[in-house]
Amino acid sequence: MAALLGMAFFAGVLAISVWSIVATVRPRLGRILFLLEYGPVIGAELPPAPRVRAAMRPVPQARPAYRPELRQAA
Asked: In this structure, are residues 51 and 44 in contact, taking their beta carbons and an 8 Å threshold?
């Protein structure tokens, strides 16, 4: 009985995962089929990559939260 319940549980998990994959792919299926048939559109320029900038404000240094006499004991 426990084996049947275990199999039913994992079958349910498998069914939910397959359903979520199908639900994700279905809206994009037209674009996927178009790209598989014709390939990527040549000449379409990609937007430039965003530039990573350093933070404008300096980050304050962390201060120790212990008492100085405890540091000497360690």
From this structure: no
